[in-house]
Design a protein that fits this description.
The protein has two domains: 54 residues, Macrophage Migration Inhibitory Factor; 32 residues. It is α+β, with helices and mostly antiparallel strands and 92 residues long. It contains three helices and two strands; from the N terminus they run βααβα. The longest helix is centred in the last third of the chain and has 29 residues. It has a two-stranded parallel sheet with strand order 1-2.
């Protein structure tokens, strides 16, 4: 038998309904990912939510800045494509 445990770590402050909704959605994605394997063999899937206390974690990362930069690049590209399509439509 194999097992797979997903651990979701988040900062404090989200209400229980939000945490439940996110966990449910993510666990459905995990189940979908492993569906074929689950159908063929014994497999135990689980998910754990770990919520840091307000003062219980120290962090140093550049993740948010990189995601923000990437998001801006994606949005800029979408706007440019849209404007290009409009320009092509105006030219015809």
């Amino acid at each position: 038998m194999r097992s797979c445990t997903s651990r979701l770590k988040i900062g404090a402050g989200r209400d229980d309904a939000v945490k439940r909704k996110v966990c449910d959605a993510l666990f459905e994605m995990v189940k979908a990912h492993f569906a074929a394997l689950y159908a063929r063999r014994y497999l135990a899937l689980s998910m754990e939510l770990v919520e840091f206390s307000e003062g219980g974690t120290v962090q140093h990362n550049n993740v948010h800045a990189k995601f923000k930069k990437r998001l801006c690049e994606c949005v800029k590209g979408q706007v440019q494509r849209r404007e290009g399509k409009r320009a092509q439509g105006d030219a015809t």
